[in-house]
Amino acid sequence: MSNKHATAQYRQPGQHGGSPRETEGRALLEAARRLTAAKEKPDNKKELLDTVRLNWRLWTIFQSEVNSQESPLPPEIRTNVITLCNFIDKHTVEILSDPNPDKLDILISINRNIAAGLLADPGAVMDAPVADSEALERMSA
Predict the structure, then answer these.
(1) Around Cβ 28, how many Cβ atoms within 10 Å?
(2) Which of 39, 53, 60, 100 is most deeply buried (CB count within 10 A of its CB)?
(3) Angle at 30 between CA 76 and CA 15, to 5 degrees
(4) Is the predicted pLDDT of residue 52 greater than 60, yes or no?
(5) What average pLDDT does the segment 47-56 reach?
(6) pLDDT digit string (tens) for 33-43?
(7) What is the rounded average pLDDT for all residues in the chain?
(8) Measured between alpha carbons, how far is 23 from 29 in angstroms, rounded to an integer?
(9) How many angstroms from the chain centroid is the CA of residue 20?
(10) SS3 11
């Protein structure tokens, strides 16, 4: 299946299926892809800042869900995720105050590694379909 076909299938509601875990993994991969693209355009600070804010919004959603009373995660995992979210918060603020494309590497790496774990296949990081760009755009609105 071509990547174009896989992306088209994902954008059709109800057709791609998958667990929330897979959806989160694909969203992290899309955010990592966008961060990588922003890094490749070091002169476009607006795109860099917009992309960093979008990634931050995604991590804020994760943080909110983990802090929810209904979170099914065991306490140890919740603590680890919250610690990671706190790191993302701090690093993002640093990037927003001093937009340097080289500072994106750690966010890209974290997103890809967490996505690989969520997708339960480390090879999926490069082969997974791109997340629904429209859904991520709605998050940034």
Answers:
(1) 27
(2) 39
(3) 95
(4) yes
(5) 97
(6) 999 999 999 88
(7) 81
(8) 10
(9) 13
(10) helix
